[in-house]
Amino acid sequence: MGTEAFVDSEELPVKAGDADRGRADRADQALVEAAQAGNAEAFGELAERYHSNVYGIVYRMCGGDDAADLTQEIFLRALRALQKFQFHGDASFRTWLYRIAVNACINELRRRKRRSDVEGPSLDEDIQTDDGSVSRTVPDETRSPHVLAERAEVQRAVHAVVAMLTPKHRAALTLVDLQQLDYEEAAATLECPLGTLKSRLARARKQFAEKWQQYQDGRLTPDEVSGGSTVVDEEIGRAR
Amino acid sequence: MSYDNAELERLSAFLDGRLDRDETRQVQERLNTCDDYRALHEQLKSARQVLRSAPDPAPPAGLLAQIKSDAAAEMAPGAGTSIWERWRAPVGAFAAAAALLLAVFSPWQATHRDDLCQVDAPAETEAMVVESSPVPPGEDAAAREEAPTADVAEVTVDALPSEEASEAVSTTRPESPPTRVARAVRSSPPPSGAPDEMSRVEPEETSAGEPPAPEPQLAAVPTGGATLASGTGPLLSEPRDTPTIARAPRITIEDEPKIGGAGPSSGVESEMMAGVVAGVVLDQFVARNMVETSTTMLSVVTDMPTSELGPSVGSDDDETGSFGFSFTDAMRRALSESENQVP
User: Fold this and answer.
1) CA distance B341 to chain A (A)
2) Fewer CB near the terminus (10 Å): N or C of chain B?
3) DSSP annotation string for B167-232
4) Does B64 contact chain A (CB < 8 Å)?
5) Are residues B12 and A55, on separate chains, in Cβ contact within 8 Å?
6) pLDDT tens-digit map of B31-72
């Protein structure tokens, strides 16, 4: 099966309404079945459709440093598990793929926690330079409005605040507000009841709003950032 | 600002338009009357707007190409997507564990073999008795009365406490049952219908008022009790005045060729070595048959008989890393019918 059969699916939006999402799911089904039959090009089509969103989830959940490598690994995991996937009921390839991505992110955060436990805290340590010891600082993107105006800086600022939330709240916020999944799909991705998703989302929004306000007011210090990370790390073990 | 979690969730859902008409009206009414509630609404609305308007991080150039390249390599014939590639580690671990267990268990089994088999001793004794003092069928009781050796042997065995019997058996470990049977057959047959020499002698010894073989003697030479059970007949070569039943089997042991080597310790060593060799052979067998093993495991996972999964060994055995394994259509169906699982 060649790629010609999937041309009509390429223009379908990933972030779409129910009708469009139904069409996208049907197009995904053809691609998935072709990939399950061994068609590498079909899997490439799926990667083309979803790699940006998966990368976005990874970037928001784990930061940008290893986002590309982790995204690559997620697609490899999905490929290896593709034979187990089947369309039944409301099963959606996109939800299934996002679930792999979220789980991979949580595992990555757990791995980082183990590594930091072994190596010890680093954010609070001074940096040793030729000129002596220099305090480690986090760039303050909030004090300069013209910097905030730049999209990349806004992106980094949002990520810095989102990263202070617990993994559960971070995942809910990432899927619903940043990836703009609907409640049902986000709950399916996180494998939690709809009510739980609503609760996590509301609390995540509240926490983000408070931290964001502090960030904009310049009241969020580097120590609080690292402290927030510690709280996040403590939550990782209970995240799944 | 006072609010509970239910109000926070309702307000959050209100922002997403996820409330029904009545709930929406209730929220709007409270927003019109409560400043704190309105402030909370503004706070959440602002956060939601910031998040939703934040630019998506652009994936780095080359990421998609790398993913496609990975997929092509992974799905290429003979690549690591075979089920064996994923099960190699578990199967290898199983083989190693099996080899280790075999290596450890074999010497133990060798040491305790006779313990395990001692329940068979009475049956073996009966067979030996029949061979050593042949009597016509149906005359067992009379024959036993006429053949006191056999009776003594049985009594001796029965009289031994179980611990002593166990100890006795363990000391005769190098002697194997087939060897004893051969010895008995070779030495037993007297003229049909006539009591053998020992049968004639021992009753005289016991009927002459001599005390039966003292128990300390049996305990001191524990092999007698146990081995007598299997060596009842072959006492023709024993000096007639030898009062103990226990010495006869010892002659039997020394006369017979050793199966395991020069002595008990070397026997254990050789059996231990045999266990290790068996473990290695098992390991190699698993390695050689890993494709079939994978098929078997696949059968277990999918709950389908191996025969229905079809042949798993392809013709591309010479391809590196493939081990000749390939999915059959039946395998694919079986796997696709299983539940979707996230790795």
Assistant:
1) 6
2) N
3) HHHHHTTTS-HHHHHHHHHHH---STTS--HHHHHHHHHHHTTPPPPPHHHHHHSTHHHHHHHH-S
4) yes
5) no
6) 999 999 999 999 999 999 999 988 888 899 999 999 999 999
